[in-house]
Amino acid sequence: MSFIVIANWKCNPLNSREANQIFNSLNKGLKNYLHKNSILEAAVCPPFVYLQEFKLQNSLFKLGGQDCFWEKQGAFTGEISGEMLKNLGCQYVILGHSERRIYLKETDEIINKKLKIALKIGLIPILCVGENQIERKKNITKDVLKKQLKRCLKGIQNLSGNKIQNFLFIAYEPIWAIKGFGGKAATIDDARQGILFIREILSKIFTKKAAKKIKILYGGSVTSKNASEFVHQTGGQGLLVGSASLNPKEFIKIIKAI
Ligand code: PGA
Question: Of 194, 218, 242, 251, which sees the most CB atoms within 10 A?
């Protein structure tokens, strides 16, 4: 089984000088490490405006977008399409992140449309799901995850054949654990239970065999101290890292901890 660590830079940093500094430090710090490590893949999802510069560098990191629109092109002011991301060298796209669900009111139906276009054009979507604090307190985490997965993945089976495991990643990100929401990381047990349940639902949507192989990542306040446990003790296959991925020293430590 191989692992993946994805950096989600969110709306940071403020200019391309800083973005390049971080990107260069990461490449320099992991040069020998990632080359030698055949079971570990790493990707950076910066704001769209830095992708072109990063594409031109001979980087060890794969690239991804933080979102994409559901149409290829046209009169959609402000939107960036999956096709554009592909042309910028992206292999991945984060979809359904809780910050987009909350601040931009993205629904499961919208995310479903974005997922379909991403899969169709060969971008690997990293579909984020997770419950908020109130839902957790009400003990309805499983209902929330099930609903999100079923709605976001509606109609995907027809689209993807039986190779879905190669084309779709899921990130379990309990909203209460995300730094931007004042979070503190989930316990290993919380993450394990979430990941286990997600796999159970996936096995009902796809085949059991495919569901077993779909990579499920954990995200939410990951640091170099908890990274290894979140990967090796939860049944997951990787991490989606926000704030800590903007600090090159810390992010390098996270990658090396796996
Ligand atoms: P965080 O964010 O690591 O800053 O908590 C993770 C995410 O939102 O993807």
Answer: 218
Compute CA distances 242 → 70, 116, 161, 183, whole Å.
Answer: 24, 25, 32, 12
* DSSP conformational letter for 11: S
Q: Which atom of ligand 1 is nearest to the CA of 177?
A: 5
CA 15 to chain centre: 23
- pTM beyond 0.85, yes or no: yes
Residue-level pLDDT, tens digit, the chain, 258 residues: 799 999 999 999 999 999 999 999 999 999 888 878 888 999 999 999 999 999 988 788 999 999 999 999 999 999 999 999 999 999 999 999 999 999 999 999 999 999 999 999 999 999 999 999 999 999 999 999 999 999 999 998 766 555 777 799 999 999 999 998 877 889 999 999 999 999 999 999 988 888 998 999 999 999 999 999 999 999 999 999 999 999 999 999 999 999
